[in-house]
Amino acid sequence: MTHPLAAPRPRLSRRAATLSGSSLTELFVLARARGAIDLAVGTPGYPEPTAELIGEATGAMEAGHNQYELPAGDALLRQYIADTLNAPTDSDTELTVTAGATEALCVALLATVDPGDEVIVLTPGYEQFSAAVGLAGAVPRFVPLHAPDWRYDPAELAAAFGPRTRAIILNTPGNPTGRVLTHEELTEIAELCARWDVTVISDEVYSTFVFDGRRHISAADVPGLAERSVVVGSLSKSHAVSGWRLGFLRADAERTQALRRVHELTTNGTAAPLQVAAGRAAMASDLAEAAREMEARRDLAHNVFARTGMKFSPAEGGCFLFADISPLTGGERDCTGFVRDLLDRAGVLLVPGASFFSDPARGEQYVRIAFNRRAETLHEAEQRIAAAS
Length: 389
Ligand SMILES: Cc1ncc(COP(=O)(O)O)c(C=O)c1O
What we know:
By secondary structure, the protein is of the alpha/beta class. It has two domains: 14-48 and 287-388, Aspartate Aminotransferase, domain 1, CATH 3.90.1150.10; 51-284, Type I PLP-dependent aspartate aminotransferase-like (Major domain) (Aspartate Aminotransferase, domain 2), CATH 3.40.640.10. 39% of the residues lie in helices and 15% in strands. The protein is built from 14 helices and 13 strands. It has helices spanning 14-18, 25-33, 51-62, 75-84, 100-112, 127-135, 154-160, 183-196, 253-266, 272-281, 287-306, 326-329, 335-346, 375-388; strands at residues 37-38, 95-98, 118-123, 139-146, 151-152, 165-171, 199-203, 229-234, 247-250, 320-324, 348-349, 351-352, 366-370. The strands form three sheets. The chain has an eight-stranded mixed β-sheet with strand order 2-9-8-7-6-3-4-5, sandwiched between helices. Strands 10-13-12 form a three-stranded antiparallel β-sheet. It has a two-stranded parallel ribbon with strand order 1-11. Helix 6 (127-135) links the parallel strand 3 and strand 4 (139-146). It is globular. The mean pLDDT is 94. The structure holds pyridoxal-5'-phosphate.
């Protein structure tokens, strides 16, 4: 029996109440129960962490790195991260190691926006962006990206800026679209940000993976944008250690002081031995080779799914294809129905596209396909789909 003093229902903050949680959990549980091939989650099946990283991780614990680390993060790891960035970066004053990009995004928002401020979010986009804006008490202002190549319309972007705009979240290479922002686009965004004094929070967790001779351009590489940018990065995908929770924030020294104060309150740092291990051994990962291998997987996934009749622009970077299924459904079935049907018939799990759009109706004709998988996994998915059709 409930205690007479107990509340009938827990009183939650408005912030927590706005969070819907993942709508996909049920699909994931079903897929696991059926032994499906999971091409849904971004968890890397490829590349694999190097033997050096694994060895250093156990070694670091045995060597006694088991207590609190400096909140800013292990000095060697910060130096390694600074060396991987194109923009000159002082690892002592401009870099902070976080518990993945997930914490980095929340810290960047909490240090930048006040309740009621507006944050521009491009849609379709990674689900966490608008949820984290809400968690910080701010309001997402959505700007559509347009198919087939997922560019913003400059007039629509300019119209979204105003006196209440405090930040814009960019994501290059993009999840789920695979778009890589160009120098021209970033320069255009820099002009708008300067006009309205807006901070750029640039999620660049897929920066290692850019294809077809392109170069990743960071917000920190563009004059005018660099000074007002907070770059969010991660080793989760580049080094295939998503469970180690190693991300980072790169910003000018003054902003970094504020970011570090917020970070001290959110997590005070991520696992010390894993930071030490990554600081010692991350350079053993050949990022250029990983990018070439990922491009080959992009091509493989492209061929496999193009043969099914789906349509998409080739991903310019990242780990995902964002595919139009309307040639298969005649626009008559919703994307969740399509994903369920593929799971039932072929035992292959994709993500329904609607979950990436602020207006889910715009996403009904899309699915997201993760190709950061071993080649055998992609081939097996192909065989299962062929056998089921
Ligand atoms: C665009 C984007 N940002 C951030 C993250 C989270 O990265 P992390 O594992 O470093 O928290 C992901 C993970 O899929 C992502 O796709």
